[in-house]
Amino acid sequence: IGYQQIARTLHTDICNQKKLGLNGMTMYQPQRCSFPTGMGLYTFGKTLWNNNISFEDISEDYFKHAFGEGWEECYKHLQTLSDTYDMKIKPGGRDYSHLEVVSTMEKCLELVESFKKDVKEPIHKSILEEISWSDLNRQNVYIEKFFTAIITGYKEDKQKGEELIKELVEWMWKH
C-alpha cells in the first residue's frame, strides 16, 4: 500500500534478468498507476538503465525530488506502510485469517495517524512537490476510509461497513 514493496520487487527482478538470459524488459503500465508515488515506473526506468544502482539510492533520489523538504518522513512513512501491509492482503496473496487482516489494517491506521500528527507539510518549492504531498495526503485519507470500513464491517456491523464502502466510492469519484 506504500508502493515500496512492488517497486523493490521490480528492482530485484530487473537486476536478475541476466541470469535468465534476458537483455531487457517491456512493461505495459499506465502512467496513471502512480498513487501515491511513481516509484514503480521510476524504479523500472532507473534499474533498466543501470542495474548496479541500489534500490535505496533510487528511493532517495525519487523522494528528494518528488517531496523536497521532509522527503525522509515521506519515504519512511511509505516504506513502513509497505512493510506493515506486506502485499499479503490481496487476491492471490498468502492465506490469512480475518483477524490478521484487521490487525494489519489497524496497524496501518495507527501509522497514518502518527504521520498526520507528527509530520508537518513544508512550503513547496515546485508544483511537483505540491502534487506529491497532495497525493500522499489523499492516500492517507483513502487508507483511513477504506480500512475503517473493513474493520467496522468485520468487528462491529457488516451493514455499517458496507455503507462506509459506498461513502468511500463516492469520495473516490470526487477525487
Structure, explained:
23% of the residues are buried. It contains 7 helices and no strands. Helix 1 runs parallel beside helix 2 and helix 6 (127-155) packs antiparallel against helix 7. By secondary structure, it is mostly helical. The two termini are 18 Å apart.
Layout of strands and helices, then pairs:
Elements (H helix, E strand, L loop, with lengths): L3 H12 L23 H11 L5 H13 L3 H15 L12 H21 L8 H29 L2 H17 L1
Helix pairs in contact: 1-2, 2-3, 3-4, 4-5, 5-6, 6-7
**Level of helix content?**
55-70%
Sheet-strand content, in percent, reads under 5%
The main sheet comes to: none
Number of strands: 0
Mean pLDDT: 90
Morphology call = globular
Low-confidence segments: none
Structural class by SSE content: mainly alpha
Describe, in short, the structure shown.
The chain is an all-alpha fold. 67% of the residues lie in helices and 0% in strands. Helix 1 (4-15) packs parallel to helix 2, helix 2 crosses helix 3 and helix 3 (55-67) packs across helix 4.
